[in-house]
Amino acid sequence: MGEQTIRVQLSETKKQKPESDQLIFGKTFTDHMFVMDYSEPLGWHNASIVPYQPLTIEPSAMVFHYGQSVFEGLKAFRTATGDIQLFRPEKNLERLNLSNDRLCIPPIDENFALEAIKQLVSVEKDWVPDAPGTSLYIRPFVISTEPYLGVAPSSHYKFIVILSPVGAYYKEGINPVKIAVEDHYVRTVKGGTGEAKTGGNYAASLKAQEMVAKEGFAQVLWLDGVERKYIEEVGSMNVFFKINGEVVTPKLNGSILAGVTRNSVIELLKHWNIPVSEKRISMEELHQAHKDGTLEEAFGSGTAAVISPIAQLTWEGEDMIVNGGKTGEISQKVYDTITAIQYGKTEDPFNWLVNVATKNTIKN
Ligand SMILES: *Cc1c(COP(=O)(O)O)cnc(C)c1O
Predict the structure, then answer these.
(1) What is the 238 CA–ligand 1 centroid distance (Å)?
(2) Contact criterion met (CB below 8 Å) for 47 and 140
(3) pLDDT for 179-220, tens place per residue?
(4) 122 near 128, Cβ under 8 Å?
(5) Using CA atoms, how far apart are residues 251 and 256, in angstroms rounded to an integer?
(6) For residue 240, which of 352, 330, 340, 339 has the smallest C-alpha distance?
(7) Looking at ligand 1, which atom is closest to the CA of residue 74?
């Protein structure tokens, strides 16, 4: 399977690229995509880079009915010297296979998938924007395509990678957001699919998000699905708190998504000798810390924003203001460092970056 070559069919036309200040997340797609099929007994085959185009899938394809699908999200960054780099892509591909396993989707060779992403980004190198804070978002995903209404794992799949140039997440500096602690709806439960990056988790989260958005909150803080006592995540980000000098984040427990950014934040804090621990954190405990004046910072972490500071947490009708509603020192330092590494402005002490060859060696 690692022996596969990637067939390349280049597009005859090129789309007009939007100006970098006009980019809206997830709305514009590049000229090409990567596609690979799975069927038995062939396994994964037909790896190809083709013009970006609609898919032809039967209405009976299993993904439409039972939601057997997984996805990933990562970015390619352009450095000042014009190089293109990926941030920890092997972590995303490792997680893709964990998600695949949970959803009964056959595994994908991670090295081959990385090669495919590198080749696709190389073909689309002119789509990697260079304005400050911009990047090329990479969306790998798998869908089940067998035309069958029986409830069982599909025997046919497609692995697809599409690319979308994205603008700067923070146009005027980091802005801290208001969060509602969700005590009615839950995102997932222990033994569920919370640990997998699957569309169903997002479908399940929309209702809560819609309700709090009406009250002016940016996101919800999810509590555990059993007792609704312990903190899990914030929106579709992992969450960190600085309490009395120590940074804490909920311990991975099977229902929390293991974010690549979460892991990077932990590694950085350790590198700086800032106390950090992964543990179960109850909402009561957090509330008490706020009352005692020891809740010093709170922030979300994820690929899209990197760091999203929390200005306010509203729980059971009480507004808890964090750090005077301002971005905390650690939040800012982590944000500055991760983005500096991504754009090649500082050293990469952890070897997080993977370079994409930009001399086009693709033969059509
Ligand atoms: C993708 C995702 C995250 C963040 O993961 P990163 O790898 O850091 O982008 C956190 N929580 C959920 C539910 C997610 O889907």
Answers:
(1) 7
(2) no
(3) 999 999 999 999 999 999 999 999 999 999 999 999 999 999
(4) no
(5) 8
(6) 330
(7) 9
**One-letter amino acid of 220:** V
Burial of 333 per CB tally in 10 Å (0-12, 13-18, 19+): middle
Spatial separation of the C-alpha atoms in residues 320 and 312, rounded to whole Å: 5
- What is the rounded CA–CA span in Å between residue 197 and residue 16? 32
- Ligand 1 mean position to 257 CA, how many Å? 6
Please state the atom number of ligand 1 nearest to the C-alpha of residue 73. 9
Q: Which residues line ligand 1 (CB under 6 A)?
A: 73, 197, 233, 236-238, 257, 259-262, 301-303
Q: Whole-angstrom Cα distance, residue 344 to residue 78?
A: 8
What is the distance in A from the centroid of ligand 1 to the CA of 206? Answer: 16
Residue 261: closest CA among 223, 219, 299, 312: 299
| Protein residue whose Cα sits closest to atom 13 of ligand 1 | 236
The full length of the chain comes to 364
Is residue 103 within 8 Å of residue 134, measured between CB atoms? no
Cis peptide, bond prior to residue 41, ω within 30 of zero = yes
pLDDT tens digits along 178-188 = 999 999 999 99
Token readout for 59 is 């209405």
> Which range (167-171, 219-223, 308-312) has the least confidence?
167-171
Nearest CA, atom 6, ligand 1: 259
Return the sign of the alpha-carbon dihedral for residues 77, 80, 84, 90: negative
The domain defined by 7-171 folds into: D-amino Acid Aminotransferase; Chain A, domain 1 (3.30.470)
Name the DSSP class of 115.
H
Tell me the C-alpha distance between 197 and 200, whole Å. Answer: 9
Indicate the domain borders of the chain.
7-171, 177-326
Name the residue at shortest CA distance from atom 14 of ligand 1.
236
**Best mutation site among 303, 307, 335, 352 for ligand 1 pocket (most ligand atoms within 8 Å of CB):** 303
The residue contributing the CA closest to ligand 1 atom 12 is: 236
**In angstroms, what is the span from residue 41 Cα to ligand 1's centroid?**
33
Class of the CATH domain delimited by 177-326: alpha beta
